[in-house]
Amino acid sequence: MDSSITHWRPNIYLFLTSQFLTGITSMIVQYAIIWYLTKETGSATVLSFATILGMLPMVLLSPFVGPLIDRWNKKGLLIVPDIVAALFAIILSISGTFFNAFPLWLIFISLLMRSIAQTFQMPTIQAVIPTMAPEKEITRVNGQLGMVQSANMIIAPALGAMLFAIIPMKFLILLDVLGAAIGIGILLFVKIPSNERIDDALHVLHNTKLGVSQLVKNKGLWYITVIGAAFTLFYMPCASMYPLMTMSYFQGTVGQAGLIEAIYSAGMLVGGTIIGIFGNWKNRMIPVIAAFFIIGITTGFSGLLPGNQYGFLWFVVLNALAGLATPYFNTLLMAMIQQSYPPQQLGRVLGVLNSLLSLTGPLGLIFAGPLADAIGVEMLFVIAGISAIAAGVAAWIIPVVRNYDLQLQARVKKQKL
């Protein structure tokens, strides 16, 4: 047996364990903050603004973060964001203790700083995976990472809803500190390959321009990015309204809001498990395109359900199906991107790509609150469903998109000869 295969697996599993532990506590706190805002304000505008703050750093900073990720110590880039999130959790907890309330401005600043930290962390995780596993295992490892993230999203909302009901918010927030401490402790033992030395001086704007150029030259991936950005424009307003959809339109509780998140994530876990076990499709763009249609149909029908508990039961079923389809888009597309560029270029390309995919989200969210108040939160789901189906149609009828993975695999195979 190849010795490289016998040694990389324990290291990957240690890495995934650290991400699970830091991720679950961070997500519990994130859900708790959103549910707190929903319960205290009941405002679609407040929720959309909170989501904008969560996305804005990704849009503004991602193009400039990529070149830094290519050069900086990647283990440090994984550890520092957890420390930053923990520090702001402490600040928020102290505020709740001394003032017996959480000022909106402080919550918004906390969400913004957490998002800035994640803007560095997420592309770093995406960039280190190809350096820690053999190339032929990248799709499966991405599937396993997706399983870890899905497991977090199943456990976090269910556990978070229970804890939200029995633990004061000022103490619940401190879970972020505990998770960061344990996760960082494990990550210290993970071996992450060092960056290849880059002797050129760091010119952030120049490297960002190179990232844009490398993405645009790759016509198939560029068109996929444009389609994904258009989809995000219409889908993100709906995604930000899930708590309000459950608690206002379906007249549900915080527990039911947590249930929806858990069900959706359970579907993602099943989908990620299938990818992790049977992930080597000959053309990975086919399940990616199918995911657009499944998400579109389930999301669109969700907005047509009656606004009562009977409708909520069907909402649960539809979200399980939507969750099942989600990893096919996220995980398979990321595996293709990782195979499209050498590791020393991947950070800057991912930075530009993540920024472009996120750019349209805040634009849609600007109108989400007023639009939801005017036409009803459920109609945002109908609009999102139609946009997802349109994105699937566009991806299918453009040959360079539909056949992107076939061309990529042929190129990778040729390079090995």
From TrEMBL:
Record's subcellular location: Cell membrane
Membrane topology: Multi-pass membrane protein
Main location: membrane
Signal peptide interval: none
Segments forming domain Major facilitator superfamily (MFS) profile: 11-402
Record-level Gene Ontology MF annotations: transmembrane transporter activity
InterPro entries: MFS, MFS_dom, MFS_trans_sf
GO CC terms of this entry: plasma membrane
Pfam families, alphabetized: MFS_1
Keywords: Cell membrane, Membrane, Transmembrane, Transmembrane helix, Transport
Chain segments annotated as transmembrane: 12-37, 43-65, 77-99, 150-167, 173-190, 221-242, 262-281, 288-306, 312-337, 349-368, 380-401
Protein name: Transporter, major facilitator family protein
Originating species: Lentilactobacillus hilgardii (strain ATCC 8290 / DSM 20176 / CCUG 30140 / JCM 1155 / KCTC 3500 / NBRC 15886 / NCIMB 8040 / NRRL B-1843 / 9)
